[in-house]
Amino acid sequence: MENLLRPLIVVGGSVLLTLLIGWATDLLLRKADAQHHETPMWGLLRRGRIPFQLVICAATLRGSYDEAQLLERHQAEIGRTLTLVLIGAAAWLVIRIAAATVETSYSRYARAHRDPARVRRVRTQVTLIMRVVSAVVGVVAVAAMLLTFPAFRAAGASLLASAGILGIVAGVAAQSTLSNLFAGLQIAFGDMVRIGDTVVVDGEWGTVEEITLTFLTVRTWDERRITMPVSYFTSKPFENWSRGTPQMTGTVYWHVDHTAPLDAMREKLRDLLRECPAWDGRAYGLDVTDTTPNTLQVRALVTAKDADDIWTVRVAVRERMIRWLAEEHSYALPRVNTASAALPHSRSKGGPARDGGEPSRDGASARRMQHEPPRTGPGR
Fold first, then answer.
1. Left, alpha or beta for 191 (phi > 0: left; psi -120 to 50: alpha)?
2. Which of 138, 163, 213, 271 has the most C-beta neighbours closer than 10 Å?
3. Which residues pair with residue 358 across a beta bridge?
4. Average per-residue pLDDT in the chain?
């Protein structure tokens, strides 16, 4: 009877103690979150209640397992399993606490600063810092788990002795990976590109959606995702439309007839922009930038607060201006001349001789047609 009650008391007591501590801790965090709305720290810490309970349960079972005298034949294996669970749960808990701390710091910074560019820069750095912390904690946890096995513990000395050679081999084998890793750190702290920036890479326009230590994802306007190594942004030029301030100036081009009412077009452009909510009101303008034998090239300058709004302003102005020209000034649209060219008045009547007194061929033909009698009969 004692052999049955002792394991039940030990295991049941450990589980009950775990549930009780977990419930009490969650209750305290809930009350702290309700009282302090200015910080999300306490609400974020509640995400770590599951790894926290696992740590308590694994620690209590590991400490009292020897007293339970349960499955004595497999005591070493069960003890090692509990140790592995304890190490893994502790690493999970550390990552959750670090994430809560970093996220709280970012939230305070975002509330204190209104500059979107600086906020995106800090967001990028916070994301990469959390990835580095998670990777380091994961590596340490795996190493600690491996050291619980006697075979790996005995091989530790030989591994340390050959660490120099292995480091050289690993460095050569992982050259591209290491270059991307350092490029990711350079992007994070060098403020070259941030999450949310509007960029143009390889002729593709899009928004930076995700930055990791090895790759970067750009979401294009048609919702495609372009994934490329971060080393691309440290070795090749690219356009960053959000560098500095997100405000942008856009252009709209039209080809119109030479008789187009330019002053009326300037007034219509002003009216169209006033009706467009995406225009930020900073500036506008309309000028003739080029001319061809048949048309004028007219350029309009418009402004907006970011890349998305500048696209909206451009397409709206282009469409409405063409519609207004077609309805009110149709003559201003490009035309193709199909009428025959009229000869000069002097040349149509023979005109003076040219090229040293030689009579004009057109004038001679005209006189011949006037004096020659009309042909009749079958020969006509």
1. left
2. 213
3. 354
4. 75
Q: Estimate to the nearest angstrom the gap between the alpha carbon of 320 and the chain centroid.
A: 31
279-291 and 296-304: which strand pairing?
A: antiparallel
**3-class DSSP state of 237:** coil
Q: Do 254 and 322 touch, CB atoms closer than 8 A?
A: yes
Separation between Cα atoms, residue 348 and residue 144, nearest integer Å: 105
- CB environment 9-24: b (16+ within 10 A), e (fewer): ebbeebeeebeeebee
How many Å apart are CA 134 and CA 164, to the nearest integer? 26
Helix residue spans in the chain (DSSP H)? 2-35, 41-45, 49-68, 75-112, 116-147, 150-154, 156-161, 163-173, 175-190, 231-235, 262-274, 307-328, 345-348, 361-371
78-131 tens-digit pLDDT: 777 888 888 888 888 888 888 888 888 888 877 777 777 677 777 777 887 788
Strand order in the sheet with 248-256: 248-256, 296-304, 279-291
The string over 81-104, giving b where at least 16 C-beta atoms fall within 10 Å of a residue's C-beta and e elsewhere, is ebbbbbbbbbbbbbbbbebbebbb
Residue identified by tokens 């890793």 is 181
- In the DSSP assignment, the letter for residue 272 is H
User: 95 Cβ partners below 8 Å, 6+ apart?
Assistant: 133, 134, 137
| Gap between the Cα atoms of 235 and 119, Å rounded | 25
**Sole residue written with tokens 């809930």:** 30
Angle (deg, nearest 10), helices 163-173 and 175-190 = 80
- Give the 3-state secondary structure of residue 376: coil
Whole-number Å distance between alpha carbons of 15 and 8: 10
Q: Given pLDDT bands bounded at 50, 70 and 90, which one contains residue 373?
A: very low
Residue 120 β-bridge partners: none
Summarize the confidence of residues 138-156 as an average pLDDT: 74
End-to-end Cα distance, the chain: 137
Three-class secondary structure of residue 71 per DSSP: coil
Interval 123-144 mean pLDDT = 81
Rounded CA-CA distance 355/207 in Å is 69
